[in-house]
Amino acid sequence: MRKGILSRLHGYRYAHTLGCERAAKMLARRFGGDEEKAAFAAILHDITKHLSREEQLNLCEKYGIIICNVEKNEPKMLHGKTAAAIARSEYGAPEDVCTAISCHTTGKYGMTLLDKILYLADYIEETRDFPGVDKARELAREDIDKALLYCYDQTLCDLIARGKLIHSDTIGAYNDMARQGVRWREDKD
Ligand code: FE
Ligand code: FE
Asked: Torsion-angle region of residue 131: left (phi > 0), alpha (psi -120 to 50) or beta?
């Protein structure tokens, strides 16, 4: 099944998916998650990312995915939800794997360990190269919540800087960490 899934991915997305699988397994080992489920979720997480806006919307219609206003404007954001639908219907993925795939793009309030592992693996996997990725990798060695909050902070700042829309689930994800008093910055005083 793994080979079949990988054959649907091309170019950078193939390398990114393999990197994500390795990172997800490593994080599962490090933080006591289910390695097999983490790998399964990673292999499928971007399976619909190459699809056009129309194809994303068609899949949403087909699988009864309800679209919010932000997603209507940014249909690429839907690739997590459409990939989860494909994972469930074509590959029989268990519900917790589908949930992790579904929220890997935006994050959300109340993420499970598996959700967190996939989100972070997608951000820090070895082919990623952008400002801040090394800090995320460093934090991910110690504390998954600190690393996640760092990712949310970076993502939110980047979206604001580029004048992009922010999904309400990303704010939910941020609030969830902030509510629990998670901090990644070292307090100076
Ligand atoms: Fe993705
Ligand atoms: Fe990805």
From this structure: beta
Q: What is the CATH number of the domain that holds 56?
A: 1.10.3210.10
Domain encompassing residue 171: 2-179
In a domain, 186, yes or no: no
Cβ neighbors of 90 (< 8 A, separation 6 or more) are: none
Distance in Å, CA 99 to ligand 1 centroid: 13
How far is ligand 2, taken at its centre, from the CA of residue 48, in Å?
10
| Domains held by the chain: number | 1
Task: Indicate whether 187 belongs to any domain.
Answer: no
Ligand at shortest distance from the CA of 79:
1
Q: State the Cα–Cα distance between residues 19 and 114, nearest whole angstrom.
A: 17
41-78 pLDDT, tens per residue? 999 999 999 999 999 999 999 999 999 999 999 999 99
Residue 38, phi then psi, degrees to nearest 5: -60, -40
Q: Which ligand is nearest to the CA of 101?
A: 1
Query: What global pTM score does this model have?
Result: 0.97
Q: Residue 49 CA: which ligand is closest?
A: 1
Q: Which ligand is nearest to the CA of 83?
A: 1
Contacts of 88 by beta carbon, 8 Å cutoff, 6+ apart: 95, 98
CA of residue 134 to ligand 1 center, whole Å: 19
> How far is ligand 2, taken at its centre, from the CA of residue 31, in Å?
21
